């Protein structure tokens, strides 16, 4: 494989990863959480972790789901048990990088910020951090095998 061909293949993979990431955040922003869960394989891992814990190698997460079944349980809990003031979110994602591809697993990382707008029109930064992903191909599509959402508690 030529260097140019290899470079084009790397760009194609990054674009596919970005498409998956954009679909992921669009599902959240559009409150289509049932479709959000379908972006993961059945035997997945999803964790929302404070940066301090991730940096120290500590496993404590504010959300920890093992398997798509637990993701779907979170969706049901969100729909039926959680009560939040009316708001809308928009994710901004940047600097997506494919770090490596090993044994058909794509290792990628992106930065994110979540803006939240309340019903009174006030908009603020709700959360910011980085996504650390392990992605696999399922047929023609990419799906998350592991997704870590590592966020900063304080700026």
Kindly describe this structure.
The chain has about 160 residues and is α+β, with helices and mostly antiparallel strands. It is about 30% helix and about 45% strand. The protein contains four helices and six strands, in the order H-H-E-H-E-H-E-E-E-E. It has a six-stranded mixed beta sheet with strand order 2-1-6-5-4-3.
Can you summarize this structure?
The chain has helices spanning 3-29, 33-37, 51-55, 68-80; strands spanning 40-50, 63-66, 87-102, 105-118, 123-138, 141-151. It has a 6-stranded mixed beta sheet.
What is the spatial order of strands in the main beta sheet? Answer: 2-1-6-5-4-3
Number of strands: 6
Major β-sheet annotation:
6 strands, mixed
State which percent range the strand residues make up: over 45%
Helix proportion range: 25-40%
Overall mean confidence score, pLDDT: 92
Between the first and last Cα atoms, what is the distance in angstroms? 45 Å
Rough outline: globular
Number of helices: 4
Order of helices and strands: HHEHEHEEEE
Flag low-confidence runs. Answer: none
Describe how the helices and strands are arranged.
Layout: H1 3-29, H2 33-37, E1 40-50, H3 51-55, E2 63-66, H4 68-80, E3 87-102, E4 105-118, E5 123-138, E6 141-151
What descriptors fit this protein?
six-stranded mixed sheet, 4 helices, globular, about 160 residues, alpha+beta
């Amino acid at each position: 494989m030529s260097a140019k061909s290899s470079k084009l293949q790397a760009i194609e993979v990054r674009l596919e990863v970005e498409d998956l990431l954009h679909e992921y955040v669009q599902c959240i922003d559009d409150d289509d959480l049932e479709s959000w869960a379908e972006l993961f394989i059945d035997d997945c891992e999803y964790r929302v972790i404070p940066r301090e814990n991730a940096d120290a190698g500590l496993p404590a997460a504010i959300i920890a789901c093992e398997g798509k079944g637990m993701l779907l349980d979170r969706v049901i809990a969100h729909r039926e048990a959680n009560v939040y003031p009316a708001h809308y979110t928009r994710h901004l994602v940047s600097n997506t990088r494919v770090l490596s591809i090993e044994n058909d697993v794509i290792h990628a990382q992106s930065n994110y910020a979540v803006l939240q707008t309340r019903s009174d029109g006030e908009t603020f930064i709700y959360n910011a951090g980085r996504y650390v992903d392990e992605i696999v191909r399922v047929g023609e599509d990419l799906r998350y095998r592991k997704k870590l959402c590592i966020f900063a508690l304080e700026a």
